[in-house]
Amino acid sequence: MSAATATPRRTATRRVASAAARRRGRGGRVGAVVAVVVIGCFGLLPVYWLLVTAFSPTGDVFAFPPHLVPRHLTLSHFDNLLHTPKLLRYLLNSVVVSLITAALSVIVSAYCGYSFAKFRYAGRRSLMYLVLASQMFPQALLLITIYLVFSATGLLNSYLALVLSFTTFTLPLCIWMLKGFFDTIPDELIEAARMDGAPTRTIIHRIMMPIAAPGLIAAGLFAFIRGWNDFIFALTLAGPDRQTLPPGLVNTYVGEFQTAWPDLMAASLVTSLPVVIAFVVLQRHLVAGLASGAVKG
Amino acid sequence: MSTVGRFRRERGDRLSNGMVGFLLTVPALLLLAGVVCYPLVSGLVTSLFKQSLVLPGRSFVGLANFRSVLAGDFWPALGHTLVFTVCTTAASFALGFGLALALNVGLRGRSVLRGLFLFPWVLPSVVVSFLWLWIFNANYGVLNGLLMKLHLIGDPVAWLGQPGTAMLAVIVAKTWNSFPWMMVMLLAGLQTVPRDLHEVAALDGAGAVRRFRAVTLPHLRPMIGMVLLLEMIWNFQHFDTIYVMTGGGPAGATTTFAVSVYDTAFKGFDLGSAGAIGALWMLILSILVVGYVWLSERRSA
């Protein structure tokens, strides 16, 4: 862009226009604030209610009409969670499976993304779009065969079954995200290393991967979130002793005669905490990755 | 790209070894082939057989599964899927676009607000479902409490117990979960609209509505087309929220394709029928996607 030549005219235009905008802008600003407040209430009040329910004593939670502002706060529901051994088991399963998923996903998609970014070979573009398209197929349909195969190989109810299926569905986004990252690393770096006689293996492991570390971390966090949040595969492929938190919560709380809502909200909060933390760390990368257009959590 | 750069690339100074490049993709391709491609083909083939989830063996039955599915579960599931998809996509687009436009005015703390509003999107779908189940709860739910306080309803409503309101409840929950993503995408799109164009249009006396239609919308059209298409595909296949909140009920009123395939296979053990519904489901989705792309290309031409 030729910024230097355009600048004087542009600032002049801007000065006149901003005067006009100021005259007109107040109505727009009020409208914007109203829209942010209204949509913001829809977006954030449910989160508020989750917190209120999780921290209120049981008596207050089941008061009707409900107390919109909590009168007493308590940690007793979180204490109940600690005394529910199967929840701790689900938590352990979630941690193990999501961490392995994140690690495996980063390794597999780093090589693939690097290949897509820095190599040229026949069929590369078709492969790239095939990878992207693979997230468009209905998982409930895929699950039929996946279940049969894991059942036949004795892998049902194993960490491996969960890790393999979670990892696969993180690949489209992670590969495209990392391809984008490697694209920004100049080829001259590779050429220079090549001149110095470095083999491809060294170039990848000693030069490219360290430079791409922020991208690798972002992809890993995304894969972690994806694995942690998964419901349908964990529900179907794992029994009680290998199930992760999302189906575990359904098994623990749904279908009881009277649902223990405050305990369930406390458990929901605990289940959400790791992904919220991962998201806060990831936000900058994720928003960029989102805008590149290949995502769904 | 400069001629020198292109020349260098063709000469192959840039990593020339295509075979090494391909080998690096093999682990990813193996996973995708094993967990996506093979199950897809195999699932579709199953639709031609009579096969149980729990018993070994299967027998070829031709199109019998399709005939029985088309005479039964298919049409209600199609209706529910379309209602769910269209309403959820439209509602999350309206909210997401409205919020994106409002945040684009340049309010203070925009990036903080954007991060805050993304929370509903990042929560596990199961948590989203539980939270809205609790809000919609007939006896103690905060929604009934609020509406009664405002004297909008006299008696508590059993939102999840009636067909119409149960569908409404899952649509609201899924919309809450999706609109933040729409907002982020559209806000990113809005920020690429050149300011100069707006300013020139303003100098020419174009009002806010006029500038929105003449400057903002044309710039944003590709982005809008993409987010609507992706959101439509995802909602068409959505399973988690519906399954946890209603299990497809009451009386099958929220049974979409995803729930129908899952229940037929994993509760009814009837893999042939599940495969047949799945095949029809993919067919309809392909028709919708192709139709959508065709329409939007014709419009932009």
UniProtKB/TrEMBL annotation, chain B:
GO CC terms: plasma membrane
ABC transmembrane type-1 domain sequence ranges: 78-289
Stored Gene3D superfamilies: MetI-like (1.10.3720.10)
Membrane-traversing stretches: 20-41, 82-103, 115-136, 156-176, 242-262, 274-295
UniProt-listed Pfam families: BPD_transp_1 (PF00528)
Keywords: Cell membrane, Membrane, Transmembrane, Transmembrane helix, Transport
An individual GO BP term: transmembrane transport
UniProt main location, coarse: membrane
Subcellular location(s) of the protein: Cell membrane
Membrane topology, record value: Multi-pass membrane protein
Organism superkingdom: Bacteria
PANTHER family listed in its UniProt record: BLL4140 PROTEIN, DIACETYLCHITOBIOSE UPTAKE SYSTEM PERMEASE PROTEIN DASB
UniProt family annotation: Belongs to the binding-protein-dependent transport system permease family.
The name this protein goes by in its record: Sugar ABC transporter permease
Organism encoding this protein: Actinocatenispora comari
